[in-house]
Amino acid sequence: MFEILHVLKYKFIGFVKFNNEFRYDNFIKSVGSTLVFIAFAIGTFSFTINVIGYLIEEIHVGLFLLHRFLSMLMFVFFFSINAGNIVVAYSTLYKSKEVSYLMTKPLSHSNLFIIKLLDNFFYSSATFLLIGGAVLFGYGTYFKLDMLFYPFTIVFIFLPFVFIAAILGAIILIVLMKLASKFGLKFVIFLLAVFYIISLFTFFKLTNPKFLVNEVMKHYPNVDQSFSFLDPFFSIFLPNHWFTESLYWYVNLRFDLVLPYVSLLILTCGFLFICVILFGQKYYYKTWLISLELTSNRESLLERIKFFRFGQKSIFNPQTEVLLKKEFRQFFRDPSQWIHLSVMLFLISIFIFSIAKVDLIKTLPFLQTVTYLIIFLFNSFLISSITLRFLYPILSIEAEAFWKMKSAPLNPKKLILCKFIPAFLITLFIAEGLNFFSHLPIADSAVLLISSSINIVFISLSLSVLNFGLGIYFVTFNEKNPIRVASSQGASLSFLLNLVYLVVLVVVLFVPVSEHFMFITNNVSQNVNLFIWSTLALGIICFMICFGMFSLSGKILKRDF
Amino acid sequence: MIKIQNVTKRFGSFTAVDDLNLEIPEGEFFGFLGPNGAGKTTTIKMITGLFAPTAGQIFINGFDVQKEPNLAKMYIGYIPDEPFLYDKLTGKEYLYFSGGLYKIDKDILKSRIDELTETLEIGSWINKLTEEYSRGMCQRIIIASALLHNPKVIVIDEPMVGLDPQSSLIVKRILKQKSKQGTAIFMSTHILSIAEELCGRVAIIKDGKIIFENSMAVFEEFKNKHDGKFESLFLELTKNL
Predict the structure, then answer these.
(1) Which of A292-306, A307-321, B45-59 has the highest mean pLDDT?
(2) Residues A84-118 pLDDT 10s
(3) Same domain as B221, residue B176
(4) Cβ separation of A333 and B129 shorter than 8 Å?
(5) Pair (B154, B239) in one structural domain
(6) Which chain B residues are closer than 8 Å to A323 by Cβ?
């Protein structure tokens, strides 16, 4: 215990001292990240109140269905925390320099495992804690719950829930590492992805939201009572069910029924914590050694493509050629890069799959506009997340090895373009695909599809340039872990500007989209020029962002290294 | 080949290099000595374009490093003190990458890589990821990458750090050979015996200013006037007054 506290104490001192050193750009980053967190918390709080109000007062779904919807959301949330922890834990537990350093010290492996586990938990789950806290606050405010509700739910319901997901993530990772030594990392990850897809699919298939809504609505207006007999048999084993049942009975002031679910959450959390400690004691060091060996198994199918071999002649000039090949190889040899991209693409697929049954045609124009804009905005948000995660750290991950390019006869503009263009083209490809497939069910209109396809080019370019440029402005060559770079304070400021851009997007698109749905529903005349003007506005904004960011990037690259 | 004209570098109120003037013609092996924090690495970083001077100019083969950086850098082979490589590239890929940056023709590059791999005795390590390398092996790859384009100027910061005796011998042999072939070599080192063995001319920098600059023969005379030891003379010249 002393060893753990000793290391944690100096980690804390290092953290506090680092942040106390006053520098102008650090100050901007701190203010920016604080603003992001506040804006995010307020937005989530307000969104929660409005959504609950809408479902209860407008749609009249009742308390039971509300909590079942929440349960489904929490299931996805649980998976996100779990998957997020696996990805981040790989860097934290196995790839960090700190681990290599502490391994050489007289510190027991199990204590080192606990230190890094806590490190990983707070690092990868901090954002989830913020979102969860804001949602619970909105929930409590809507139902006018007493002050005890907040500390009680956060400490005894929310934290154990997040802990269960995170600890399971660490256990899964250790098992993965153990299996990877026998079957190869990529095969094991593929198996895990298949397991996740089947789990998600099975959950929604067996939960059957449509059947649940129909059955409950047969009892309208008595829809607040519990219809737990409709729950599938396996739900009793799921933490998301315990979570929402606790809330459901709390709102009904049945504390005697809250306690069993809370106990289940705490006991499971405690049990898993003991399991992970024992697991760590037995396997952490062994799997750490395995992780060192795994780096040698590098040749992938993609890498066998001749075009990306360094020895192969190319149509590009030598500098462009080697820059592109280097980027490609580094990306596909770094598991934290390609695994994270795969997870994001997987989440995008789930999103497209989940909106496949949305039918906007039969609803009111206003509802059509709002739904369309929310989906379009969510598409843009996904593009923003991808660019923030992969384009923001693109220069920082060069780390100390950047001296080679900086001392070579290489024009900074060429370097910028060689890094930016491939990343942007991949982003654009994903964005156009996302736009196309999400439009199929929601907009039976060529005008809307064409205009959004053009707009998405400007949106992708704007967000890519914004995150790429700010990543260069706030470049830090000391940290080469892309996940950590993408969640730094500079990245938070970048995220804030992304949110501002998304707000501007809604302002620009609201009128043409709304007029379009009015035209479709009421057959009033449609002014197509409105779409042209909105596209023009997005184009001008895009040009301004590109001009500003590329000028800034060029200047930053001329700085001392 | 290297001309440093009235170069000053300031970091805020701290002056790291103060009005430095040096000229190294082709074929000269120049030793740049000085205690820690004297301004050696800062000078080297300005020569290689990693730092911009606050004042003054640096010319490589007649090209201003700040005004025509790409032309000037074409002639430099730089070997830094810390051998940072790209972890996820193999040694061979790193050499292809470096050669590409200097626009070397692919066929020529291929034979240069084979040649340097043999000369520097890199062996089968060339096909392994650099994250598996020892410091010495990283250093060998960096030396190979600096020599790929046959530079007219070699700038080396602490060349022997992390090298085993065998590697040191190889590096010294290559550098001597390059110097004889007309390459100007600018070497910073703490190891006085290396400077004594390799350099034709030396300069000692302290607090950003040159306090001694002359040929090795003159340096030998100075040395003999003291107790005949290079270390004693160095300590005498660099001691705080």
Answers:
(1) B45-59
(2) 788 788 878 887 878 888 888 888 888 888 888 88
(3) no
(4) yes
(5) no
(6) 100
- The answer to whether residue A279 scores a pLDDT higher than 70 is yes
Q: Is the pLDDT of residue A18 over 70?
A: no
B104 and A318 within 8 Å at the Cβ level: the answer is yes
pLDDT digits (tens, 9 = 90+) for B137-160: 898 999 999 999 999 999 999 878
Q: Which residue of B has its CA nearest to A314?
A: B106
**Beta bridge mates, B15:** B10
The answer on B94 and B149 residing in a single domain is: yes
Strands B29-33 and B201-206: parallel
CA nearest to B93 within chain A: A310
Residue A326 has its nearest CB partner, among B49, B84, B86, at B86
Q: How many domains does chain B have?
A: 2
Q: What is the pLDDT of residues A120-171, one digit of tens each?
A: 877 766 777 778 888 899 999 999 999 999 999 999 999 999 999 989 999 9
Burial class (CB in 10 A: 0-12, 13-18, 19+), A177: buried
**Which whole-number Å values give the CA distances from A125 to A31, A97, A159, A418, A435, in the listed order?**
21, 21, 10, 34, 30
The token pair that represents A187 in the structure block: 């095969």
Element (H or E) spanning A409, and its range?
Answer: none
B66 at interface of A, judged by CB pairs closer than 8 A = no
Which structural domain range is residue B230 located in?
215-241
Q: What is the pLDDT of residue A362?
A: 62
Close Cβ partners of A552 (under 8 Å, ≥ 6 residues apart): A469, A472, A473
Residue B28 lies in a domain: no
Contact A327, A419 (CB under 8 A): yes
Q: Where do the structural domains in chain A lie, given as residue ranges?
A: 1-297, 299-325, 334-561
Same-domain pairing of B147 and B97: yes
CATH number at residue B170: 3.40.50.300
Mutate to test the interface with B, among A314, A326, A337 (most CBs of B within 10 A): A326
Q: Which residue of chain B comes nearest to A409, CA vs CA?
A: B70
Chain B residue with CA closest to A397: the answer is B86
Q: Say whether A558 and B93 touch across the interface (CB within 8 A).
A: no
pTM: 0.77
- Segment holding B10, helix H or strand E: strand B2-11
Secondary structure, 3-state, A283-309: HHHHHHHHHHHHCCCCCCCHHHCHHHC
Q: Give all strands of the β-sheet with B209-215 in edge-to-edge order.
A: B76-79, B153-157, B184-188, B29-33, B201-206, B209-215
Taking contacts as CB-CB distances below 8 angstroms, the residues of chain B near A558 are 52
In a domain, B223, yes or no: yes
Residues B228 and B161 in one domain: no
* C-alpha to C-alpha distance for A272 and B107, rounded to whole angstroms: 59
Specify if B6 maps to a domain.
no
Distance from CA of B110 to the nearest CA of A (A): 8
- Residue B94 domain flag: yes
CA distance A1 to B103: 57
B133-157 burial, b at 16+ Cβ within 10 Å, e below that, comes to beeebbbbbbbbbbbbbebbbbbbb
Mutate to test the interface with A, among B92, B95, B97 (most CBs of A within 10 A): B97
Cα B75 to chain center, whole Å? 13
Cβ contact A401–B82 (<8 Å):
no
